[in-house]
Known about the structure:
By secondary structure, this protein is mostly helical. The protein has one domain (about 5-390): ABC transporter involved in vitamin B12 uptake, BtuC, CATH 1.10.3470. It is about 70% helix and about 0% strand. The protein has 16 helices and no strands. It has helices at about 5-30, 35-45, 50-75, 80-105, 110-140, 145-165, 200-215, 215-225, 230-235, 240-265, 275-285, 290-315, 320-340, 340-345, 365-375, 390. Helix 1 (about 5-30) crosses helix 2 and helix 3 (about 50-75) crosses helix 11. The longest helix is centred in the N-terminal third of the chain and has 30 residues, at about 110-140. It starts with a helix and ends with a helix. The model is unreliable at about 345-365 and about 375-393 (pLDDT under 50).
Amino acid sequence: MNRFRLRSLTSTAVVVVIVVAVAMALIVFAGADPLVGLRGLVEGVSSSPYRVGELLVGAVPVAIVALTLVPALRAGVFSVGAEGQVVIGAIAATAATFAVRGVLGDAAPAPLYWLTGAAAGAAGGALFALLPAWLAARWNVNVILSTLLLNYVAAGALGWSLRTWLASPENTATPQSDKLPAAAALPDLIPGTRAHVGVLLVVVAVVVFEFWRRSPHATRVRIFAERPALARRLGATRTRTIVTTMLVSGTGAGVVGWMQVAGVNDRLLASVSGGVGFSGLAVALLGGLLPVGIAAAAVFFSALAVGAVGMQSATGTVPSSIADVIKGVLLLGVAVVAATRPGLVAPAHAAPAPAPDDGALGADETAAATAASGEPLLADASAQPRTAAEGAR
């Protein structure tokens, strides 16, 4: 086990232990037996197929957002814009679904709805992620700031859409779109629950990112976060790395937006994101940026919310809102863990400048470069970009 994985697993274990300790303290403070409360938490997750389905419904979008954030986070591109990208993806997927129905009517087959909705959602999320990526690559705009502010733009676009061109013709208490065609709904994975086949997409994503993690491209991305000058020699330019990694995260968030509409709500709601963007970021860090760890962290995160209802029923005194408090402690712990990894949370444009002797690579750097490129790298000064403009390319 390498040092990075050991440190990630240790940090995650410490955060989980602290969260459990805080949960037990809150249960005691509420005047209940901690063991009864924890048993109620477990039963609230596993007592019936419906509760298991709710566990999966909560874990799937968070896991996909977290998994597709991994390349950006490994590159030091700390994006917090998944929330807005989910919203834009949901808007695009809803509009595309209604467009298919408008053209083909009731004759449109279900697979066409699924492919169109997924493609539109992915494109919407990717394009919305491309804007902050371009701002960062072109003008060094802080990625954290730009993606955070664009979340408000997405929320405004959603509110306007639900009041105008996507508004339901029915009089409703809350803004929402018309119901999607029945054929556009994702098939159920567990009958009688809201769990849909999107669970299988999480399995596929875990396998894909597990292979990617062992690829030369992943090595170049990691080197970019730590040694930008060395990464340029391997072909991982700053612009290319920022744009490609953020496009991956935007695509994943957009697909989640489609799944929330077609698989859970059957229509576009103002609450379509449900905080999965921010939760996905926390889960990615809690899982140590490892695909299997992220999947486990997503299930754990969802279990807190789903099991809180069972805890309330078992104790009679502990409110279900305790899940929000525990999540807050969990997010705080994740923030502390992230702060201890400066290479992870530093914006890509703030990467340290190369040392004066960067023209010569050490043995470890040469080995890393060779592993990433697949061929020996000549460590001479002539490999450096001749001008700043050439390096930016």
